[in-house]
User: Which sequence fits this backbone?
């Protein structure tokens, strides 16, 4: 029987890479994002356009998408918003609220919909970030949201002992997020920007498909960790 997979944020970057690799391997893949990925749909992706910042419309669209699936082998909560690199003091509250909505609260209602109708889920991997630990200046709402995501995953792990949960930092991936970060001018306030610029185009920052292959290899190994923990692929 083919693997049944659900991935959020499939229109670009890591989520696109994961969906592409799973589809190539014959998995049944359900995915959502705001922008449609026609090439993945042509490959067989079951797709719905869902804006994770819009809970009211999003819940219904997502529920309809997953309705035919009675179980998932793996759910990958990948979609996220980075926002601008700037000091907390310069970041509008509305921007922080939207980051929390997409990166944290949407994952709460996504999980609630996924577990509804007695749906069985073997494994949940929430894509976290080293930013959840580092709290580097300028990473404002993104860092807060990823730290909160780690805790959300731990809390769900306590409630759902039949499902294995991990919050996983994927390492650096050459995606639109990194395109934005590495195109910023050097700024002494935000030293990680120089590290990212140096990593771009090297093995330290693989493209999304290479990273997806590495993650897919690693997912079974996550099952050996305690459910609910934060892990970093670079340290596994
Ligand atoms: N790239 C890195 O180096 C890196 C490092 C550490 C962690 N991560 C994490 O890896 C994951 C993937 O990031 P990425 O680099 O691949 O980013 P990306 O290329 O910007 O892709 C983000 C994905 O999330 C979706 N998304 C964003 N806002 C959404 C919304 N409101 N509603 C629905 N979907 C939304 C986007 O789709 P639409 O725009 O079509 O909606 C897109 O498919 C994220 O969780 C990120 O935090 C990335």
Assistant:
């Amino acid at each position: 029987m083919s693997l049944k997979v659900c991935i959020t944020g499939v229109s670009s970057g890591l989520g696109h890479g994961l969906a592409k690799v799973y589809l190539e391997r014959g998995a049944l893949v359900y995915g959502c994002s705001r922008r449609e990925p026609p090439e993945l749909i042509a490959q067989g992706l079951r797709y719905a356009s869902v804006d994770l910042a819009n809970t009211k419309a999003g819940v219904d669209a997502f529920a309809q998408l997953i309705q035919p699936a009675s179980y998932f082998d793996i759910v990958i909560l990948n979609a996220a918003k980075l926002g601008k690199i700037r000091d907390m003091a310069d970041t509008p509250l509305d921007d922080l609220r939207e980051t929390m909505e997409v990166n944290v609260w949407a994952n709460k209602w996504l999980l609630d919909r996924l577990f509804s109708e007695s749906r069985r889920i073997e494994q949940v991997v929430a894509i976290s970030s080293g930013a959840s630990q580092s709290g580097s200046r300028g990473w404002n709402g993104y860092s807060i949201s990823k730290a909160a995501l780690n805790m959300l995953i731990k809390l769900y792990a306590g409630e759902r002992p039949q499902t294995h949960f991990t919050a996983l930092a994927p390492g650096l991936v050459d995606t639109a997020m990194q395109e934005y970060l590495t195109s910023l001018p050097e700024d002494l306030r935000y030293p990680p920007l120089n590290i990212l610029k140096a990593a771009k185009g090297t093995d330290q920052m693989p493209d999304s498909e290479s990273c997806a292959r590495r993650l897919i290899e690693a997912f079974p190994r996550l099952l050996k960790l305690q459910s609910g923990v934060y892990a970093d692929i670079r340290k596994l």
About this structure: The radius of gyration is 17 Å. DSSP finds nine helices and seven strands in the chain.
